[in-house]
Amino acid sequence: MQADKHQNDLKALQQKISSCRICRDEPISTPLPHEPNPVVRLSSTARICIAGQAPGIRVHESSIPFNDPSGDRLRQWMGIDRDIFYDEGKIAIIPMGFCFPGWDAKGGDLPPRKECKTQWHDQLFTLMPQIELLLVIGQYAQNYHMKAQKKKNLTETVRHAVDIWHKSQKPRLLALPHPSWRNSGWLKRNSWFEEQILPLLRREVKQLTA
Ligand code: SF4
Hints:
This protein is an alpha/beta fold. It has a single domain, classed as Uracil-DNA Glycosylase, subunit E. The chain is built from 11 helices and 4 strands; from the N terminus they run ααβαααβαβαααβαα. The protein has a 4-stranded parallel beta sheet with strand order 2-1-3-4, sandwiched between helices. Iron/sulfur cluster binds next to helix 2 and helix 6.
């Protein structure tokens, strides 16, 4: 009964999010420069949740999360193919901003919209108590989900990812850098990430999606 209620509440919430126009009609600051297109995957059964940043332009246009080179790299990190990655019964995808935020003056993506967090995130995670592993990608998601466990910067937080994962309770938290090509230099400089963090990530993903 409780599971049915969660499922219904989540469906209702997903519908509300799909029609959200807050960043156009009642923005905290500058309005979103295009029509909103929230890209988020809620789930009442997934044991893994990918907590990322915000959709880029390709995701905005396709409405498929991580449908870009960042997604390809993330799937490679996780050791899974697209079929498992996009199985909503197994993996939820909840970025800090659900809509593409637009570009800054240098052509980079703007930060996730703050409106999403205020409006949606607390109620949303309350409705998904079954999540066992939260992949916390990038500084915005780490600010929201990790709070006291966070270290002085993203590199240090990721460096302590295994330790934080051990100490966290349900859901366990695993900090990752953003899989964007912009982070290729970071990945080269910090080869310990592939050696120390990815084996744990792949083991957990395999177990929780089995
Ligand atoms: S970014 Fe979030 S709050 Fe803003 S319009 Fe999209 S769903 Fe609504």
